[in-house]
## 1
Amino acid sequence: GQQVMQIPQYQHVQEGEDFTTYCNSSTTLSNIQWYKQRPGGHPVFLIQLVKSGEVKKQKRLTFQFGEAKKNSSLHITATQTTDVGTYFCAGRTNAGKSTFGDGTTLTVKP
Amino acid sequence: GAGVSQSPRYKVAKRGQDVALRCDPISGHVSLFWYQQALGQGPEFLTYFQNEAQLDKSGLPSDRFFAERPEGSVSTLKIQRTQQEDSAVYLCASSSRTGGNGYTFGSGTRLTVV
């Protein structure tokens, strides 16, 4: 079945440094979504990408969908302590459900 | 309601006991999903409803797991004869028909089987 892999599993950065997490799917996706989960919390929707090569920005966050619609990335510029959490990508095929990766856990040292 | 509501928030069950987990989605959301999340892992798909129709139950681990959404709103996930490997957080999510705003997750039910 469909698999979604994320790297790295963990990332520790100094406040102010940049951060990137990568997501790869074994199959072509109709769309990809990104979520953030704070420690002890539940996943919160950040964004959805649909088009091949699409790039979207939310303040310091930049999301990209690959040309082949099989990979995606999330880049955070100048991390802050409020960025701490686990970032998940979720890839959706035409079958309807979304398959989540295992996430990248970001810690930020002030 | 304003968000997705799940109850109970925590459940401790003795091995072999049956449990029922409830999800009250956002009003008007036609799609409802159940996911299972183990510690340190991403949510794993269990089942999906569109209104009252269960369109995909391919993620249910065994026939001990059963989900229903009889009136197209509230959903219940039932686990019979619980086992230790069922211990996890069970997340419910809902979305609009188009899904363009992603899934809205509830706070989850943390199930511990002892």
## 2
Amino acid sequence: EAGVTQFPSHSVIEKGQTVTLRCDPISGHDNLYWYRRVMGKEIKFLLHFVKESKQDESGMPNNRFLAERTGGTYSTLKVQPAELEDSGVYFCASSQLGTGVLHEQFFGPGTRLTVL
Amino acid sequence: AQTVTQSQPEMSVQEAETVTLSCTYDTSENNYYLFWYKQPPSRQMILVIRQEAYKQQNATENRFSVNFQKAAKSFSLKISDSQLGDTAMYFCAFTAYYSGAGSYQLTFGKGTKLSVIP
């Protein structure tokens, strides 16, 4: 069974540019989460999809971040325009829908974003 | 708001020895769940062990066990018979069911980098 995949693994962009990160969850997983780890700090929750719907986007830092999950399969996270403080590792995780937390969140390898 | 604190940024242990990683948390929730995740170098984060707060018995998974002290809000991870493959970043994490959001978002500590020395 394929795990959670993320693309690209690493992205280096200039301040002001746009970047789109992609996450492919495990097949059949309706829950999809985005997290971010800024250097030296905790991994922070960004948002949660249930199928194609945004269940909780309380962690999104500002309106420069736009997440989508068309068709309830893969998800994209677009940063436009990117700022220096957006640098960090962006993780995606997926889990089954059902009895909630007992369904483990499976993490992808992350996308390391560097904004220069 | 929930917080998770890991006070040991880095630790090392000799192969075959035992090591304990510390984690404390703060919450006003009564029903919650605690996790230890492991991220080996250049690899994906995986779940090591989980504990439901309503269970008094400490969780155990092979060489990994926890010491869950609910009153003290402490959740330490003990790794016995450490192996080279245990070298990784270890994250302590917390979640509760936030009914308003309907989400099981995880709250993480900053992590502890564990090195197992041959």
